[in-house]
Every structure is written in C-alpha cells, then in structure tokens.
Prior knowledge:
Elements: H1 2-15, H2 26-34, H3 45-53, H4 62-67, H5 74-87, H6 92-98, H7 104-117, H8 125-131, H9 137-150, H10 158-174
Helix pairs in contact: 1-2, 1-3, 5-7, 6-7, 7-9, 8-9
Amino acid sequence: MQWIKVTIVVLGVALLGGCGSREATPNTAATAATVGEVEDAGPTQEQIEAARSELPPPPQRPLLVGLGAPPPERGVNEAASDALGRIGEAAIPALLEALRDPDPLVRAEAVRALARMGPEAEPALDALIAALQDGDKGVRRAAAGAIGQIGPAAKKAIPALVQALRDYEQDAGSTH
C-alpha cells in the first residue's frame, strides 16, 4: 500500500512541475496532503526512481517532436531522424505522417530517415516520389537521394526522377 502512495505522490509531483526538486512547494505539499503523506514534503530520489521504473516505455511518436526542433536544437532533429532511420520499417508509418508536416525541415528529416533505411524503405516509395514535387528544394533533393538508396527496387521512380532533373535544369536556367 505504501508504494501506491509513493507512486501517486511521484506522479502528482511530476504533473505539477515539482519533479526533481526536494523543496516543498504549495503544489507538492497539497499533493502529499491528499494522500496522507504530510510529514515529508516530497518523495526521496529512491522513491522517484522506483516509480519511474514502473512506468511503461515511451511510444515511438516523441521522436517526431525532435524532427521539428528549432535551429539551436538541430542536433536533436538529426538524432531523431537517425534513430527513426535505424528503427527501420516499423518507423515508416510515423515518417509518412511526418512527410505531411507543414515544416519543410520536418519533411526533409523524415525523408533522410527513409534514406537511412535503404531498400527497407521501399514501402514508402510512392511518398518519396510525391516528395520530388515538394515546394521545398531541400525536401526534393533528399527525396531523390532516398529513392537512390532504395536501389533497383525503385525503378518505377525513374520517370519522376527524370522530371525532377528537368525541373532542376529549368530552375538553374532561370537564375542566370
């Protein structure tokens, strides 16, 4: 029964923003009082760790949060992309969702994650072909590279790649 009280206190403290602090605040004291733990304003580090060990592992989706990291956190962005690419085929549905994100940096990192999968990313080939038409040049460039990483199984992308080459030539010709 004591571990239930500790778990409630730990979760209450974490939800109210006091996790990691041994100082009593009105929020942590109120939470402790509701479960009859008035004599101690907060859980010990040992109790916190024990409660954390009972929590389920986080879902895969939070890695997508890192894909849209602001510029000072670019390392998080790239690490999330790398992790999703290494996870492999199980990450494809989440990456396909990220390809619909309004942020071009998120879309580009999702494509780079698919590129890291190589041939294993073949189920995402249609989405990569569509990404060749993206409004962002970085996404289009990453999509072409990802299709190349799939290899011979991506041969149906040849017409779209040739068109992308022509589009590039037109873009390059219009800037001179």
